[in-house]
Each structure stands twice: as C-alpha cells, then as structure tokens.
Amino acid sequence: MAGIYIHIPFCKQACYYCNFHFSTSLKRKTELIQAIAKELILRKNEVSETIETIYFGGGTPSLLNADEINLILKSIYDNYNVISSPEITLEANPDDLNIKKLDALKKTGINRLSIGIQSFFDDDLKALNRAHTAKEAIETLLEANKLFDNITVDLIYGIPNMTNKKWLKNLEIVFDLRIKHISSYALTVEPKTALHQFIKKNKYPNIDEGLALEHFKLLQQKTKEKGYLQYEVSNFGKANYFSKHNTSYWLGKNYLGVGPAAHSFDGKHRSWNVANNHKYIKSLQENQLANEKELLSKQDIFNETIMIGLRTIWGVSLKEIENKFGKSYLSNLLNSANKHIVNKNIIVENNYLKATPKGLFLIDGIASDLFKV
Hints:
The chain has 373 residues and is α/β, with parallel strands linked by helices. It is 43% helix and 21% strand.
C-alpha cells in the first residue's frame, strides 16, 4: 500500500510562523492544477503498490474549487490502482469553508478534513496573522460536523502570552465539539519567517520553552482523560480516527509527492520537486519532471527509521534493526540509548525501543543522539 501527497502552494496571506513553500498570488492556479495532473500521469510507473491514501496539503488546499479537486482526483484514478474506499484528506482554513463549500467538497470524495484552527482566541490569531476569527473557527466546525465524521484540527501551543487557562480553553472547545483527532504543535521560530524577524527586532516575545512544556503536559493529560491516544508526538486520535496517510509516513511506507516542493520516498530513494511555481509549471508544460533524486545510504535509512519510529506509539523494532542493518548497528543503538533509558526518556518494551510520555517532548534531540554518524 502507498499514498499520494499533493502540495497546493497557495495561501490568501502569509502566517508569520510558516516556512512552507507557497504563494499569495493565485494568478497561475489553473496552470498549476493542470501541471499537477500532468505530473501524476508522467510518474504513474513509479508506483506499483495500491494507493490507500490521498492527501491534499499546502499551502491552503481549501482555496481549490470542486472542479479543480476533481481534475486531480481523476488523474489519480485514471493512472493508479486505488482501493475502493481510500482516505482522502484536505487541509482547510475556516475562512474558506461554509456549508455550500463543505457540501461540494464532500461530493468530490474527500472524506477527511484537516482544519487549521491554531487557536480559538482572536489575539492569538492576530499575532500569528491567521485569516480567520475565533467565531469563524467555531462556526466552521459546527457546520463541518454536519457533513464530515472524520475531522482533525490543528492547534498551536507555546504561543507567548498564552496562559495555561487559555490553552485549556482551546482544548475544551475541541472536546465539546466532539472532534475526534487533534494535531498540535509547539510554536517554533523558523529562519526567514516574519516571526523570526519580529523576535530579532524585539517586536515579539521570544519563545518560552518552559511554557511550551507546560502546555504539552496539559495536552497529554487532558487528551488522555478524554479518550484520545497520543500515537505520535503531535497527533492525538480517538480509536479508528488516526490519520492513515500520516501513519504511513511514520511506518516507513512508500509515498508519491506531487506539486512544487513535494517530496517522495520509494524505500531506497528520496526525491523532491523544485520549490518554484513558475519553474514547476514550465517543466510540466514541456512534459519534463522538475525534481531531484538521491539514493539513500544504509546509514540514512537507519537514522530515518530511528527518527520516525521514536516519535510514534509503535516505537522502533530492535529485531527489525538487527535484521535490516546488522548486529553492529543494534549494539551501537543500545549503547547510545542507555543514558536516555536511565533518565527514563525512553524504554525497551517487548523488544521495541519507545519514548516515554516524559521523553516525547524531547524526542527529536534524543533521536538525533542515537543516529549513526
């Protein structure tokens, strides 16, 4: 089984914290959608497995209309072997969604919405330069619940000046709306973003890691009380509502990424498309792919296995490490892991190396410490 990711590189406005590839000009939207459909045709022989998930990410895919979504989906169904009921996710912003748009999206075959809420407080939304209001966020979720059963919301914690009380209120609203999946991330400062510049010029408070840790612990506690399972560092789902598409990444399955800046993985190679809309469109109009490809070394694959495995509830199979990479890799891994086991940040359970709830907040640093260098 494999998945297809479609990167839609358009946004109404730039969120201050975002470093993804996107454009706020929609002038070439039609050409870009046609280019994505063409790329899907040109790359059909790269995927032999059955497609079980399709994911529209971005950017802001909810800027597409139903005809544009249908054009892309037709290109997938015409050229790939897709299971009868694939998970089809669309990332969306509240300001793009009303009952008419939601109904149109439902008719395309989309069956999962990922809605970028971030916060239910207007001062937070303004500070992040989000295009919607808190009122719109709640109204949108109420409407979306009428048509979609499988909804996830994005929330950001660790926002400067966000008290624990405000953070708990954000979670309470999600629980009250009976949303079955939450993706939640700490606010981070990425280079070349507006947020980075604001902090550098003392126009915005710096990130407080202590505050972020407090929020993370509250997130773990409250979601557990409400029956969510933290199956990945940033993802919390009710039973049967985990993201199948994102889970496939974490389990090391193959996926095809189309659109500008999209990445692909076939088990041995990593490839990525040019992060430039004009160059991407021009290449596809000439029936050429605008991507680069690299063969991953044994060490690269090992490091990635450690990184993604430790972020999940499933952990890293020590048996798989030995079978796939050899006894020396396993021995080095266990030696490096020992101090983190002593500190109770990771454990060995049923021959799997797993992060503890305490260790999850620090897991990226811990994982990199276990890499083969």
